[in-house]
Amino acid sequence: MYNRNVSPSAKKSQPKLEWRSEHTSKEKKKDSHSIPILCVDCIPLFHGTLALAPMLEVALTLIDTWCKENKYVIAGYYQANERTKDFRPNQVAEKVGARIAENFSEAAMIMVDSTRFTMGCYEPILAIYDHHENKWKCRDCNVDSFEDWCEAQKITSALLEGRSYESLIDFDNHLDDLRNDWTNPEINKSVLHLC
């Protein structure tokens, strides 16, 4: 989720990745990246292979409703492929990303490059794709692509060391038991505490 007009409390959750935005304009711009976009939160969808379109539709509908209630929009998609050396968008990623781009012209797709993963998170392990002329193009991504990579690195490393991924709730978990909160308030509290 992205957020352009960030309040101090929203900025604290910046190191988590995904997509909400207070920017609600649907206008196309010649240079859509002239104004920086800040990623402030993420919502994990599924931990297994995503093959069922109805489950994805339910997830995106619930997320869209939640975002509207919080004055955000879905502004992108992230995915980590099953194969370690495969970090290119697959058909599912491209379709979900294209659907998001229909409603948010500055949509991005973030692919996790697991080949560069370390517990210390010394460098960004993300490949960022922008949607141009109905195609996804990989952006040159480095530490400067992030507002405060050092802080994000420290927080991410601390979350990994604390094994917070074991308590992460995605939509698979939520659909198994509706009491499971896919907004992950406990992990968000941990992120804010680490800031």
From TrEMBL:
One of its GO terms (cellular component) is EMC complex. Pfam families: UPF0172. Residues 1-12 have a biased composition (Polar residues). InterPro entries: EMC8/9. It comes from the Eukaryota. Residues 15-28 have a biased composition (Basic and acidic residues). Residues 1-28 are annotated as: Disordered. PANTHER family: ER MEMBRANE PROTEIN COMPLEX, ER MEMBRANE PROTEIN COMPLEX SUBUNIT 8. This is MPN domain-containing protein. It comes from Oncorhynchus tshawytscha (Chinook salmon). The lineage of its organism: Eukaryota, Metazoa, Chordata, Craniata, Vertebrata. The gene is EMC8.
